[in-house]
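Entry for the shared binder. Reason: the reviewer on the internal report wants the predicted structure included alongside the sequence.
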Amino acid sequence: MRLSNPEFLFRVSSLWVRTLRIEKIFLSEPKFPSIVAFWHGRMFLLPFALKEYSDKVAILISRHRDGELISNIVGKMGFKTIRGSTGVGKGGERAFLRMVDWLEKGGVVAITPDGPRGPVEVVKRGIAKLSMKTGVPIYPLTFSSSRKIHLNSWDRFLIPLPFSRCKVVLGKPILPEKFKDEESLRKEVELKLRSLIRKVDRGEL
């Protein structure tokens, strides 16, 4: 089936993205190492937006069957992938150590903190643990589109329609040393991601 064929999906999505008019807005200059956080429902365009940094970026992808497909697609774009989760079990411990190692080498780790199965727009604690452990800042990232559809999925996955105007926005860094514990950092990441997505959707950025 073609929808489960990574080569086919990569080619179709690449052609799709070429029709889009994409504007990138960096509210602060990204630094390395760093952690990039974006909602699961807004991941469609972001690997293409980050492609110029693909040799520096490792994307955390679940070990679920859908994750295998995503891993194959982003691998074709030159990204490193780390399979597992930010939690305990499901390859979480091994994935966490690999992310720490990648950050210590000066790389970027990209995480969907509400993935792989939600709840939608609720940040899991793993990203805060990773940031606290390494001292590496978290950058919120999102995109919006002038014309779009939302899939009937738990994350309301957004797909920009062809020839739409899109904005990809990287927010200001969230510094772990400013927070007393993982929970307070987790809440701040959730707050900043929700705020950023509202602003870009309303055209305020």
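Summary line for the report: Helices lie at 6-18, 46-49, 65-76, 92-104, 126-134, 182-201.
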